[in-house]
Amino acid sequence: MSNKSKRAEHFYNFNSSAGEVKIDLNNYTVKCSKTGNVKKFYHKYLANMIQTKFDNCISTFEDTYVSREAGPSVHERKAQQLQDRIDRYFKQISNLKGELADLQSGVNSFPDA
């Protein structure tokens, strides 16, 4: 009688270009499409990421996965978020200036009900 422990298996069902597949995500590794570096993930985290961000398609995930190290830095992401907020506020200010100009010129853009 052997007391060897069996490696845990964590199978998940995903869609792929070849149809539905069942994959063991325990010790599954993926290659970044930009850097070529190999990464490992905890099976539940990886399954959730494939389901939510890659529409449950393992083929799309394997072909397009980009690791955080290949993406923009924290400072670049923060700068982009701030620029997006500034752009939204400028658009809102422009709309409000247009409404003010309409009110001052006597044009009724909101007819009485």
What does this molecule look like?
By secondary structure, the chain is α+β, with helices and mostly antiparallel strands. It has 2 domains: 11-70, no CATH class; 72-107. 44% of the residues lie in helices and 16% in strands. It has 3 helices and 4 strands. The chain has helices at 43-53, 58-64, 74-105, and strands spanning 11-16, 19-24, 29-31, 38-40. The strands form 2 sheets. It has a two-stranded antiparallel sheet. Strand 1 (11-16) and strand 2 form a beta hairpin. The radius of gyration is 25 Å and the shape is elongated. The N and C termini lie far apart (86 Å).
Brief overview:
The protein is α+β, with helices and mostly antiparallel strands and 113 residues long.
How would you name the oligomeric state of the polypeptide chains in this document?
single chain
The tally of helices reads 3
Question: How far apart, in Å, are the first and last alpha carbons?
Answer: 86 Å
Question: Helix/strand-derived class?
Answer: alpha+beta
Query: What is the overall silhouette?
Result: elongated
Strand content: 15-25%
Low-confidence stretches: none
Overall number of strands: 4
Order of helices and strands: EEEEHHH
What's the main sheet like? 2 strands, antiparallel
Computed Rg: 25 Å
> Overall mean pLDDT score?
86
Structurally, how many domains make up the residues?
2
Widest beta sheet: strand line-up: 1-2
Please bin the fraction of helical residues: 40-55%
